Amino acid sequence: MGRSTSLAAVTLLAAGTMALAAPASAQPGYPPPGPCPATVTSVDAGTFAVGTVFTVTLSPTCLWTPGTPVNVSVNGQFVGAKGASAAGTVDVLVNIVSPTLLEIDNPVKVPAVCGTNSIVARGVSASAAADVVHTTTFGVNCATKVAAGSGGILAFTGTGLLGTVALAVVLVAAGAVVATSARKRRRLSQPVA
Fold first, then answer.
1. Alpha helices per DSSP H over the chain
2. Which residue of 68, 103, 107, 168 has the fewest C-beta atoms within 10 A of its own C-beta?
3. pTM for this structure?
4. How distant is the alpha carbon of residue 100 from its chain centre?
């Protein structure tokens, strides 16, 4: 009886609190009236080592109109037009093949530079009522290289795990020996009835 009374009291208290709370509202003046004003935006995606493969989601402040073509260039070279997603963004797959070569969306090869590289995309935005240009920069660190099997494009064969697997097998065998000897000791220490 005590639990159901406590539960009823908590439920009534929660319902009363929610009834008195003010409804959520946005800040006054947001979103701004009229078209979205940010037609040129940029962002930095970070720095990556040679051998890294990563995807950049180009997402301008004033999103592109879903389904419309977005022209993409990397380091000044046109790499193709992509359709804006339902979210108004475009994904670009970047493979840093070498300090001097990028591979974009697998088939397109583009010159790379050690340091800052850029992806520039231009497309129509209904919310801006204009063309929107979005730039994403990323760095290529030529001093380091991604080890095979750790996110680069080379296949991961599993040979790097050989030592760990061998250690696990030895530890399991040692545990089995200890368990067996403990059982024998227990059996030998018990008096015969």
1. 2-20, 162-189
2. 107
3. 0.59
4. 25
